[in-house]
Amino acid sequence: MPSSNYYDVTAWPVGNASKDVGEVINSIIADIKHRQTDTNVDSGGKPGAVIYIPPGDYRLRTQVLIDISFLRIQGSGHGFTSSSIRFNVPEDEWPDLHELWPGGSRILVDLPPAADDPAKGAAFYVERSGSPRISSVEFSDFCIDGLHFTADGSSLHPENTYVNGRTGIHVASANDSFRVNGMGFVYLENALTIHNADALSIHDNFIAECGSCIELRGWGQASKITDNLIGAGFKGHSIYAENHGGLLITANNVFPRGASSVYLRGVTRSSVSNNRLHSFYPGMVILADNSSENLVATNHFLRDHEPWTPFLEVDNGLDDLHGLLTINGNNNSVIGNHFSEVIDSQSIRPEGATPVIIRLTEGTGNFVSNNHVVALDVHASSSDSCFSAQVDALLATGASEGLAVVVVVVDPASARNTILDSGTEAQVIADRTANALRATPAIGG
C-alpha cells in the first residue's frame, strides 16, 4: 500500500515539477504540515515524509522553504559532470560532446541573483524558530546545478568567475542531526552553508566547481565531513568551519583551486585526518583565531602549479612564506603528515624566498612530530586540456632538482612548542630557548 507520507514531485497535482519544482515541493510541505498537526498520537504524532525527485531536469524558480523536521528529499543520482570543462571547450565542439549538462535527478536553480544576501539565492532555505530545534532534515542523491557563472569585472571568462549569487542549501537556524549524503553540487557560488549545526553529517557528496563548497557558520558541535569529493573556486573555501567543537574532517579528497582546502576559525578539539589535500597555492590548511587542541594527522598535502590555461594567472593572494599549514592556537597536534611541495623555483613569491611548509604564528604548546616533506623544483607546464594536464602533472615523478624549503617556522608570538623529527636543524626556524626541538638527522650529518 502506498504511504501517504511518500510524495513524488512528478505526481503531485499542484504545479508542474519540470517548470518550477520549488512551487511543487512547497505545496507538498504545506500538505505535510496540514495533515501532521498532532504532536503525540499513540506516542508518535509527526513522522515527517519523503519527497522523491525522479531522474530528470527540474527548473527551480521558487525557493523551497523547509520548516519541518523529519523530512527527506531524495533523488536517484547525484548527476555531477564538469560544467567548467564544457564551458572552456570551443562551442563549435559542443555537438560532439556526449553530454552538455549535469544529469541524474537535477535541480536547475533559476532564481534571481542575490549578491546582497546569499540566503535569498538559495534553492533550499531551512529555518524554524522555537523549541526543539529543527531536526533530521535529509538531502540525498540529487544534483543542484547553478547553471552559469556571471561576469565579475575581471578579465576572466564569465563562466570561470565562480560568481552568480546562487546557493544550493542554506540552513539559517539551529539544527540537529541533519544529513547531506550522496549529493551533487555544481556551479553555485555557495554550495552548502549551514549555521549552528549539532551532529551534522556531510558524507559521500560530489561538491565541485562551486565558489565555496562547505561552510559551517555560527557555531556547532559533534559534526562530521567525511568521504566527500570537494573542489572550490579560487575566491572561496573548500571546507570552512567557525566556532565548532568536536568536528571530524576525515577521508575527503579535496581538489585544487580553492583559496583554502580546510579553514578553521575558532575551532577546538576537532580532527583533520586522513584527507588528501591538493592546492595550487599556499594556505592549504589554516587554523585561525585561537583554534586549539585540534589534531591534524596523516593527511597528504600536495602543492603544485595550476596546469590549465584558463586559470594560469589566478591565485589566492598568499605568498610562499605563509606556509602550507598555518596555526594560530594552543596545544594542537600535527603528526605524521606527508607534504609534497612540487613547484617551479622561478615562481616563488616573494622572489628569492625559501618556501615554508608549517608555520606556527601564535599560541603555545603545539606539538609537531614526524612529518615528512618532499620538495622538488620542477618546470611548470600548462595545457588547454584540463583533464590531461592535471593527470600528467599528478603522475610526473621523474628526476627533479631538490627545492630548498623551511619545514617549520615558529614566529615570536608562538612559544613553548615541541617540534620533533619534522625537519633538519637548518629547516626549522624557532627560538631554541622558547621551544623544544629534536631535528631530523641530515644525510651524511
Question: Could you explain how this protein is built, in words?
Answer:
With 445 residues, the protein is mainly β. It folds into two domains: 1-37 and 44-251, Single-stranded right-handed beta-helix, Pectin lyase-like (Pectate Lyase C-like), CATH 2.160.20.10; 256-445, Single-stranded right-handed beta-helix, Pectin lyase-like (Pectate Lyase C-like). It contains three helices and 42 strands. The N and C termini lie far apart (77 Å).
How many independent structural domains? 2
Distance between the termini: 77 Å
Q: CATH superfamily of the largest domain, please?
A: Single-stranded right-handed beta-helix, Pectin lyase-like
CATH architecture of the largest domain: 3 Solenoid
Approximately how much helix is present in the residues?
A: under 10%
Number of helices: 3
The CATH topology of the largest domain: Pectate Lyase C-like
Layout of strands and helices, then pairs:
Blueprint: E1 6-8, H1 21-35, E2 49-52, E3 56-60, E4 64-66, E5 71-74, H2 83-87, E6 105-109, E7 122-126, E8 134-135, E9 137-140, E10 143-145, E11 167-171, E12 175-176, E13 179-181, E14 184-186, E15 190-198, E16 201-203, E17 206-210, E18 212-221, E19 224-226, E20 229-232, E21 237-242, E22 244-245, E23 248-250, E24 253-254, E25 260-265, E26 271-273, E27 276-279, E28 285-288, E29 295-297, E30 300-303, E31 325-328, E32 333-335, E33 338-343, E34 356-364, E35 367-369, E36 372-377, H3 386-395, E37 401-402, E38 406-410, E39 414-415, E40 418-420, E41 428-429, E42 436-438
Parallel strand pairs: 1-2, 2-5, 3-6, 4-7, 5-9, 6-10, 7-11, 8-12, 9-13, 10-14, 11-15, 12-15, 13-16, 14-17, 15-18, 16-19, 17-20, 18-21, 18-22, 19-23, 20-24, 21-25, 23-26, 24-27, 25-28, 26-29, 27-30, 28-31, 29-32, 30-33, 31-34, 32-35, 33-36, 34-38, 34-39, 35-40, 38-41, 40-42
Antiparallel strand pairs: 36-37
